[in-house]
Design brief:
Elements (H helix, E strand, L loop, with lengths): L1 H24 L8 H17 L8 H24 L10 H13 L6 H35 L4 H36 L1
Helix pairs in contact: 1-2, 1-3, 2-3, 2-6, 4-5
Length: about 190
């Protein structure tokens, strides 16, 4: 029964992430990912704070697992939505399957634009796989040092991603205004 509940929490995280993203995108599409990522950060920080005080074999341990699966659902749903189902971040089997398919397609795709698109996709999948393993190894070392507080590192990366996205958005807004202003001056 517990494993069924684990699955439900992952599903609930995916549902919540997409529901919030859709709801927010109605008013401001550029910010549709901010609330789901913020919610994921809250879950990670909460588990980092309260999980350190819990025994992983107790009832609290199950709630830690439920919370982490909820956060994984948020992450996987959001990345899948943003990448239009090209990227999955919580499992490797699909990535290796897609990588195998694309590597075999290298023998059949002959047009330069097809090959370029295929190589870009292969590079993306290899990058995700490599960083997945780097994350697993570094996460193991960090857990030895910080225990549950290593989740603060993940929350920090999410915060940096939000800040980067905000800065990038502001850059594009300024660039657009500058181009529009230049167009008005030329008329």
């Amino acid at each position: 029964m517990t494993f069924f509940v684990f699955t439900i929490f992952f599903l609930l995280g995916a549902f919540t992430s997409n529901f919030l993203a859709e709801l927010i995108s109605k008013k401001n599409p550029n910010l549709s990912h901010v609330i789901p990522i913020s919610l994921e950060m809250i879950v990670l920080i909460s588990v980092g704070i309260f999980g350190a005080q819990s025994s992983l074999s107790s009832t609290e341990g199950k709630w830690i697992a439920f919370s982490m699966l909820f956060a994984m659902g948020i992450q996987n749903s959001l990345v899948s939505k943003i990448s239009q189902s090209t990227v999955r971040t919580t499992h490797l089997t699909g990535l290796f399957t897609d990588l195998g398919i694309e590597l075999s397609q290298l023998f059949f795709y002959k047009k330069p634009d097809e090959k370029k698109k295929l190589k870009t996709s292969i590079y993306l999948r290899l990058s995700i796989i490599i960083f997945f393993f780097i994350g697993c190894i570094s996460g193991g070392f960090l857990y030895n040092l910080l225990e549950m507080k290593n989740l603060f590192v993940a929350a920090t990366f999410l915060l940096f991603a939000l800040l980067y996205d905000y800065i990038r958005l502001q850059f594009h807004v300024i660039k657009r205004k500058t181009l529009n202003y230049g167009t008005i001056l030329n008329e």
